[in-house]
Amino acid sequence: MNNETKTLGILGGLGPLATVYFANMLVQMTEAKKDQDHIPMIILNDAQIPDRTAFILGESEESPLPKMCEDAHKLENAGCDMIVIPCNTAHYFYDALEEEVSVPIINILDETVQECIKEIPNCKTIGVLATRGTIESDSYKRFTDKYGMNYVVPDEDDQESLMDIIYNQVKAGKPVDILEFMRIIGALKKKGSDAVVLGCTELSIINRDYDITKKHKIVVDSMEVLTKRAIERCGKTVKQ
Predict the structure, then answer these.
(1) What is the pLDDT of residue 3?
(2) How distant, in Å, are the alpha carbons of 23, 60, 82, 86, 239 from that of 12?
(3) Would 198 disulfide with which of 4, 167, 202, 203, CB 3.0-4.6 Å?
(4) How many CB atoms lie within 10 A of CB 30?
């Protein structure tokens, strides 16, 4: 291992499947000819962290933050040079979590908005598909505003359908209604979105199974963006 290679801490379990998928993406997307070319990583797949959306929406009084802080300290104390959280909704707690540790935490929301601007020609409006917690907390809007972008989200019925896909299909390990999911993406395009962000790591699982970002160039997968940034900042090269 060269001196520039950094150890990555993955604060996971939000959800467990998305965490495993993210770790696999890191291996698959790193330019490597031998084992030693890969990123050293420490994965804390803590499925006991309370539900993020339920707390943000006031449906639960059990805050995920104390457990997330505890896990971040464990990763820091284990020698991680930086931390990623493969969960968009959990970034509601980003600022508080960042204050808890001395190592940097890569912000999936900020990096994804920047990726849209960089990769989508003449991008002015970004549509976001995410959990109700991410949408109602304006977590992505904070960064679309930061970069002068317009911000679009699904209407109420489509958001309800999207939550069903996330919780009752992907998280439950059941088949996904891909036609309904693509219809929701199409509805965001009709509302003027130049880019459509898969702003929930469960939606990245759908992208894995159906190659949505390869077939639809305006769709940007936040998990893919986080993977690329993690590889680069750990001193490795993203596979082309």
Answers:
(1) 52
(2) 10, 20, 14, 6, 24
(3) 203
(4) 19
Catalytic residue among 80, 116, 123, 200: 200
CA dihedral over 66, 68, 71, 72, signed as positive or negative: negative
Choosing from 87, 116, 123, 234, the catalytic residue is 87
Whole-number pLDDT of residue 128: 98
Whether residue 123 lies in the annotated active site:
no
Taking the model in full, what pTM does it have?
0.94
Q: Which two tokens stand for residue 69?
A: 């802080």
By C-alpha distance, which of 71, 116, 108 is closest to 90? 108
Q: In what order do the strands lie in the sheet with 41-45?
A: 41-45, 8-12, 82-84
Encoded amino acid at 224, one letter: E
142-194 pLDDT per residue, tens? 999 999 999 999 999 999 999 999 999 998 999 999 999 999 999 999 999 99
Return d(Cα 26, Cα 135) in angstroms, integer: 27
- Residue 200: active-site member: yes
| Whether the predicted pLDDT of 13 surpasses 80 | yes
